[in-house]
Design brief:
mainly alpha
Length: 61
């Protein structure tokens, strides 16, 4: 997750805490969707929260 936090800090000029909170919220949403069997939503959640490509999804699972 440190890599994603670093990307957000550099790209979006966020503080560490802001980026960390955003990543935690995103991870929670992804895990909730997967727990409910809505695996197809994981990519959309990643894109909506962090504007990252599906390649980064592996960091959340």
């Amino acid at each position: 997750m440190e890599e994603i936090i670093s990307i957000l800090m550099r790209r979006d000029h966020l503080t560490f805490n802001e980026a960390y909170e955003l990543v935690c919220e995103c991870r929670e949403e992804i895990l909730n969707a997967c727990a409910e069997g809505r695996y197809w939503e994981a990519e959309d959640i990643l894109a909506d929260f962090l504007q990252l490509e599906p390649d980064y999804l592996m960091y959340f699972l």
